[in-house]
Design a protein that fits this description.
Elements (H helix, E strand, L loop, with lengths): L5 E5 L4 H5 L4 E6 L4 H6 L5 E6 L5 E7 L3 H13 L19 H29 L3
Antiparallel strand pairs: 1-4, 2-3, 3-4
């Protein structure tokens, strides 16, 4: 055991995004998590690295609930669940796991913007000017 708790799965977060383009790193601070704030343990961070298709490549967590979040992310990775699936976790409220839900929501929001940007680019190609 370490204090604060540390956990990591897959490829180290941060290393992967330097190796290849198309990888993204998503972070959530436990300082913004209601359960961590209520417990007085609002110091910590969870980072999840995803590939261009949104698949979980690796994750690191430090702080309360690090082992539980890492084990959940390992299970999600093993079963092919992507970052977007994290937004649909049915976690009680408040819960430390809500940080993973927020990461999933951020990923989904970025995908919607990207899809819209693609549509705008295709429309611009059709315009004569």
């Amino acid at each position: 055991m370490t204090d604060p708790p540390l956990a990591q799965i897959g490829r180290p977060a941060g290393l992967v995004d330097r190796l290849r383009p198309g990888f993204s790193l998503y972070r959530a601070s436990l300082g913004e998590n209601e359960a961590a704030l209520a417990l007085g343990l609002a110091q910590g961070l969870v980072k999840v690295t995803g590939d261009a298709r949104g698949r979980i490549v690796g994750a690191s967590a430090v702080g309360p609930g690090a082992a539980e979040m890492a084990s959940f992310l390992a299970l999600a990775k093993e079963h092919g669940l992507g970052l977007g699936a994290l937004a649909h976790i049915s976690a009680p409220h408040p819960a430390l796991m809500a940080s993973l839900v927020e990461l999933g929501k951020v990923f989904q929001a970025e995908q919607k913007v990207s899809a819209l940007a693609g549509k705008v680019a295709r429309l611009r190609r059709l315009l004569p000017f």
